[in-house]
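REQUEST FORM: STRUCTURE PREDICTION
Request ID: SP-0412
Submitted by: Lab K.M.
Chain count: 1
Length (residues): 285
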Amino acid sequence: MAMRNAQVNRVPSWHSSVHTSHHVLTDTRWDRRSTIPPYMGDRRSTPSNHRPAIACRTRFSHTTMSSKDEVPRHSDFYISTVTFLVEGSLFKVPREPFEKESEVFCGMFSLPQGSSGVVEGLSDENPIRIDGTSKDDFEQLLKALLHRKYDSQPNLPHGIEQWTSVLKLSTAWNFESLRQASIDALMESGIGAVDRVVLSQQYHIKGWLLPALNELARRQEPISLEEAKRMGIDITVQLASVRERVTMHTYSHHHNLAVGSCRSPSMGKLDFSDQIRSTFSAYEL
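STATUS: Completed
RESULT:
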């Protein structure tokens, strides 16, 4: 019995106490009067790979700070949040990436508040309302903006459609670094020539138009009606003139022509860059 009491007295007590202004709440892992915890009473039954529990006392105190107290905020681990309302959904996200990476949001956050004293974006009741933006596009922007920093690949946008959403909003709101990341991701995804033509004009992407037009000029298949609608009448007509000019020059000395496609597979090896530059002189190639 004396030996058992001695073993009981060696049992570590783990306490976690929360102090409030009125009382103290104590959470005890093991009651001293209860049975001995596993692997602590009889050393002979202790597994060889088991380490004895270490006594730990943690105190959490609740402190009411007055307005005169000046406690510094940690530079990395004190997060300010902002609440947005997009298509009827509330988004509460860290504010810092918007301030650091977007000229638009940085300027908006620096504007003086109105005379009402209500600061938008600090609560669900007074969010920053973003009109003209779809919830799906905003979700993809947040995925890229928040997960890209930590290289969280499974949570990043996937595919051409989702990265196009990121490109759309990052361009509109001047997220320069995020915009470039979306352009790189689209190129890695194997985006087609027609899509590159369309996006280069919509979002002013330098270096995309000339290679895309060159690819379309080299291919054997004609431009389809759907592709023409997407690229627009101006680009389609000028691209057709490039294709026809080279084709007619190639076959001008042949008399055995037939109705139908007369483009040779060897066209795929040609470089139409000079013809494209002269024909599309009004475009930024």
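NOTES: The first strand starts at residue 15 and ends at 19.
Reviewed by: T.R.
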